[in-house]
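Record filed below.
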Amino acid sequence: MSKAIATIKVKDDTAFFLKDVSVSYQLPNERIHTFKEYAIRLMQGKIKYNSFLALDKINLAVKEGEILGILGRNGAGKSTLLKVLARVLYPTEGQVWVKGQVYPLLQLGAGFHPELTGIENVYLNGTLLGHSKQEVEEKLPKIIDFAEIGDFIYSPLRTFSSGMTARLGFAVATAWTPDILILDETLSVGDAAFVEKCANRMKEFRESGATVLLVSHDVDMVE
């Protein structure tokens, strides 16, 4: 049984703490081409699996108000680590302690619907983050201003470029100051000016006591 959420003795200024955290996945050891074939072989008990270790006994402690950058090549387990911290994935082994509210930007366009307009998606995403319609309305002008996507805010999300989607997603997630902000390669599609703008907002978060975790394979991005 996973000790995913555990009582761990930590210092008062700790934002999150991981002890001996491991995550393993069971992957079929051969390629199955169709869902029908997979379902039949699954019912017959003929599928054999190999265990893939995405995280191996990770120990990590980060204080409140810190900005932590984690570098690693693709497939190194960075996204898995973020999912554990965001509480969307339980570790196979180990203990996790997270303090406060976590705003994760784990995937470009996560929490958005392609057929809704930019403004409608702001309300949708804000609601998913736990805010009321009134709270979103109060932040809407600042969100639109920060995203800098012009009249596209009134267009369906499917007409957005990846950079515009990233701008809007970051603007919504950072309109409120979370306890912990998690970013997974989100800023890699933004231009230099917008990345600098995001960096300044993250510094503001740090000064207010929030913790920021940024994961990338790009050294320049983390710096």
In short: Residues 103-222 form a domain with the Rossmann fold fold (CATH 3.40.50.300).
